[in-house]
Amino acid sequence: MPEPSPRRGSRLTVDDWLDAAMQLLITEGVGAIKISRLCAHLGVTKGSFYWHFTDIAALMSALADHCRKVEESARQTLADLQTLPPVERIEAMVRLVSDPRRWTVEAAVRTWAETDESLADIVAALDDQIFDISHEAMRELGFDEPEAHARATTLLYAGIGYLHARRRHGPASDDDTRIFIDLLTGR
């Protein structure tokens, strides 16, 4: 987690606490979110925390709500892609997964969703939408049902794999992305 940023002299907001909790979620996982760590990071006392939240469960509930909104925003972004031609739609989806601002949050939310059923449901809905959009694009490209299904499944699984493997293997290069799209959309 970055160095503490003392906030003395200015009042923290709920969003400040959620931002700090999100940073911990992204960098260290849900288990690292503790009142004492958040207070140290923000340079405030526990009294400040209790001014905004009754307990850590209330913060975690608010953070889960925030994560659900992030996933809903991603779903809307995907819905907006449906007007693009099929190959451009696939390219745009690959760019979204490759965007570091998106994948850091998405990977953290997906990891948390493994132990939180309410988040698991929204992640599953996002995956269903990714599959549906990919499947439709493959059908528009002229692939029969079994091939369209297999290609859409491959895109979905590759995206999820990218979210989890990019820390060890680094981001996909432009060549990697181009070749991947060509493999999926070409005959």
TrEMBL record:
It comes from the Bacteria. It holds the Pfam family TetR_N. InterPro entries: Homeodomain-like_sf, HTH-type_TetR-like_transc_reg, HTH_TetR. Residues 34-53 bind DNA. Keywords: DNA-binding. Residues 11-71 form the HTH tetR-type domain. This is TetR/AcrR family transcriptional regulator.
